[in-house]
Amino acid sequence: MARTIVITSGKGGVGKTTTAAAMAMGLAQRGHRTVVIDFDVGLRNLDLIMGCERRVVYDFVNVINGEANLNQALIRDKRCDSLYVLPASQTRDKEALTPEGVGKVLEELSKGHDYIVCDSPAGIEHGATMAMYFADDAVVVTNPEVSSVRDSDRMLGILSSKSRRAKQGDEPIKEHLLLTRYSADRVERGEMLGVDDVQEILSLNLLGVIPESQAVLNASNAGIPVVLDNASNAGQAYNDMVARYLGEDLPMRFLATERKGIFSRLFRG
Amino acid sequence: MGLLDVFRSNRPRGSASVAKERLQILVAHDRAFRNRPSYLPELQQEILEVIRKYVEVDLDAVSVNYEQDDEQEFLELNIVLPDGSRS
Ligand SMILES: Nc1ncnc2c1ncn2[C@@H]1O[C@H](COP(=O)(O)OP(=O)(O)O)[C@@H](O)[C@H]1O
Ligand SMILES: [Mg+2]
User: How many CB atoms sit inside 10 A of residue A14's CB?
Assistant: First the structure.
């Protein structure tokens, strides 16, 4: 039986797809059989971030509609044997993801994998609800910014009322907070909400803080999940996040700007 | 400029503290709204119908408010009677 993890947020553009790719690759690199699914029907781009866009033949909706079987649609990662990608469809019909169809695919995937990572689309409507419905864990990706924090809180409301676990009265989804695009510099200047501020409002288990980093853009340009770039702070922060998810107790890094000498601090602007 | 000012100017009160205050209020409001029992609109409608059997009140004369704190839930019912309804 696999554990199903949804990467969700409510708001768009906060780093869900970046996180889904990093988390899936991180889990697979540690030897866990992992599949990452793009639920963003019509706007697929997980395949781009994973660098497998040219190998897409069949997609999630083809499998649900019985036009292809899972083995035909799954793309095996070239860098890591235990990682598969299930791309989203380009169809404009968002209703193509039915609860029965999604449930069946997840159940089948569950047999041969340890983790199923679901990359949710933005919003709180059909696509996002489908991505979170079957989840055991949720990573709520949040930027330190008002609309993102608010939407994350709304998403928490949906996780705790509309998921399968909620409907069946099972143990609730385990919710984790991932703060991304964090700029320690701006937090120190009082221009950006700090990790403690966000924690005070959302009070979730903090899985990690990912700094704002050029490495993320470089990684997506190249189609290499940033978690593989261990020289970068974002890559290291994502690796820490995966380790924490698996139970390691690691201190948060990159929360402070590099310490400057006392003189430069005293005489700064 | 004294030494204290130097330290103070090092920590200006930026927009983040405003953001946090606004968020705290907003999120508390959102959560209260989310937790409202789903029967409220129906309850409000039925109470209105009962009142209108006896008094000719406006259609928006009845409001039902729900609040919750750590210990209790409050259901607040407000009925506005028209002028001269005491016959
Ligand atoms: N830590 C980060 N630092 C810099 N840019 C980032 C970071 N995380 C995400 N981005 C950028 O933000 C944009 C949206 O990211 P994406 O993962 O596609 O978000 P979502 O899936 O939530 O819409 C992309 O251009 C991505 O490169
Ligand atoms: Mg995305």
Answer: 25
Q: How buried is residue A54: exposed, middle or buried, by Cβ count under 10 Å (0-12/13-18/19+)? A: exposed
- Which residue, chain included where needed, has tokens 């968020």? B23
Phi, psi dihedral angles at B65 (to 5 degrees):
-120, 140
Six-digit token string for A257:
């700007």
Nearest-CA residue of chain B relative to A265? B10
Q: What is the number of CB-based contacts under 8 A between chain A and chain B?
A: 52
Are A141 and A103 a contacting pair, CB within 8 Å? no
Q: Which two tokens stand for residue A37?
A: 């699914």
User: For every residue of A88-138, which 3-state class applies, written as one string?
Assistant: CCCCCCHHHCCHHHHHHHHHHHHHHCCEEEEECCCCCCHHHHHHHHCCCEE
List pLDDT tens digits, range B56-74.
Answer: 888 888 888 888 777 888 8
Encoded tokens for A265: 């601090």
The residue whose CA is least distant from atom 27 of ligand 1 is: A217
Give residue A218's Cα distance to chain centre. Answer: 18
Number of residues written out for chain B? 87
d(CA A15, ligand 2 centre) in Å: 7
Q: What is the ipTM of this complex?
A: 0.80
State how far the Cα of A19 lies from the Cα of A8, in Å rounded to an integer. 10
Q: Do B19 and A150 touch (CB under 8 A)?
A: no
In the block, tokens 């419905």 appear at: A133
pLDDT digits (tens, 9 = 90+) for A94-118: 788 999 999 999 999 999 999 999 9
Q: Compare CB distances from A150 to B10, B16, B23 and report the shortest one's residue.
A: B23
Which residues, including other chains, have CB under 8 Å from residue A47's CB and lie 6 or more apart? Answer: A38, A53, A56, A75, A85, A87, A88
DSSP A173: P
